[in-house]
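1st attempt posting a full record on here, be nice pls
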Amino acid sequence: MKKSVFSWRATVAGLAGGMLLIANASAQDACGLCAKQVVINSELATCFLDQYDQFAKASSDAIVVDLSGCTSRGIVEALPSPNKAPAEPDMQFIVSRPQLACLKKQLETPGVVLDPSATIELDSCK
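the predicted structure (as tokens):
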């Protein structure tokens, strides 16, 4: 009985090609779960900037930012304006490496207003 080498090679080549396509698609859209924007206040911004080096050392392209341990419980929050309640700050979010750098850059912008909260667009640094 003759073994079909051609079909085996075609199968391996097809699988390898499929894996490359998946890897390429993943590289282009590496962070489907990444935040497009982040709501942050000055307290969380300071905490983020203090921890930035730790976040930047992450080995993955999708970086989990957890600021839930940053809030001080002793400070009374400012009363919301009667017209519009401030957006609730994001305590945990996922960003890509470029978004992480973008957030840092925007938070370090002189004169940025972060209180009671500010929405930072993460795709605006392109």
